[in-house]
Amino acid sequence: MSAASASAPAAGRASAAAPPAAAAVNLTSVFLRLKLSLIRNGLKGSSKRKAAYFTSLALSLAVACLAMVGLAVLHGNAHAGTVVVLLAAILALGWTFMPLFFPSGDETLDPSRLVMLPLRPRPLVRALLASSLVGIGPLFTVCLAVGSVVAVARGAAGIVAAVVAAPLLVLGCVTLARSVATANVRLLTSRKGRDLALLSGLLIAIGAQVANFASQRLFESGGLARLEPAEAVVRWLPPATAVGMVDSASKGSYGTAAGQLAVTVLALVLLLRFWERSLTALMVTPDGSTIAAAKPSGKRESEGGAGAWAFLPAGRTGAVMQRALRYVVRDPKTKSAWVTALAVGAIVPVFNALQGTGSMYLACFGAGMLGMQMYNQFGQDTSAFWMVAQTISTPREAFEELRARAYALALVTVPYTVVLTAVTAALLEDWAALPAGLGVGLALLGSMLCTGALASARFPYSIPTDGAFKNVAPGQGGLAWAGIFGGMLVSALICSPVIALTVFLNVTDQQSLTWIVLPLGAAWGTFAAWAGLRLAAPTVARTLPEILLAVSKG
């Protein structure tokens, strides 16, 4: 928000002389220009960053348009109202929590940056709300809102209600996200808040899987008609009431539609009021969330710490491995990413096995989730990477650095993959498929170590240190997603020979030979990881200043 320090004081001085309405409009225009400047400045200096951003924008628009068309196709369907009302509720729930738990790259979610500026809360709420409507997320929401109201709008009354409902739904979602973020900003920017990410990641992982299995059971036993009781309740919960209003007006229930409109508007007004009060409290209350009384420390870390790391190799390799593993234990964001990957990687195969719909090869999901931790290795160091950069001057030194980081990752992921595959085999009572499942998992893990090293060298991005759930610096979100998803696709191609061999042996009823997939998969994964490290090392040594600049941006 560096641009705010130059623009907002001027807006504050102008508000003292101008009428309140004119000052609010002026402040709103300043924040709109500020948001556009943040997006534009985040794309400067890197053609890769621009390409990644516009690619992610194009993909988001494509998905949004397809979703909008799909919802519009439901027009006239007997269950269209049920689908779009529940979708609106899920959309609102996502807006409430996802900006906090997932990388949004939006610095404006933290209003504590503005506490020293002479700004009044009410005009500031208007300005922040207007700037929040700029971005890929709001555009995606607009498309879903339009598709939802089109799906249920019928007749003149339904069309009029749809014109009102779509903006109310978008405003309700954005206001809900802003008010929750403002009310919890002190917690989210404290050490306790960063540790809270650990729990939030687990809750989201478990919740997603519960929703997945619930949807499977739903379509197996009764279809969408079973959701109608839940929809009858949700259509009175704002902002889903906006879509429910369109459905009610289209059916001729004008009294019900008027009531839902009143509930929607009242909830929006209350949210804005709550947001304003939270913003006022934030600007006038001292921050004591990170102040703690000094307590005498217990054992010094050095009294037993050396023994815990004695099994690591000596020299640079051991030092780098120890540093990487300490990040997992101590850094809240790294810890959150690891625990979420461990939890999700185990939940998918285990839950499916317990449901009777599992497969041995779902255990590979755990290897894939942990393999993603190899991406953006240098960004995990944040601004401290400059100290690491001082020790890298040749491709050989870069290779040793990357290799040690891969060793630290493999130290956890390889035993985890073995145990998870064995547990899946036990739950499925299919021990004959264990060697093939483990071989494919090890091949996938090695392939992701390969692409992770290459992505770390070619697509580094910064992980900001000032936000609990902000994992990508503004302007680098597209770069991060492009590197991750591109790497995942390439990883699938790299390990495709092992997958093809497994499929061939199973299709041709040669299960007795599937044991050869285990040694071949382990060897293939090892070779892929080594090749990726070798290919990435010269790039790291050559582009070290660019990497340092990219990871220090936040």
TrEMBL record:
Positions of transmembrane segments: 20-39, 51-74, 80-102, 123-150, 156-176, 196-214, 254-275, 406-428, 434-457, 478-507, 513-533
Keywords of this entry: Membrane, Transmembrane, Transmembrane helix
Keyword Membrane: yes
Highest taxon listed in the record's lineage: Bacteria
Protein name, per record: Transporter
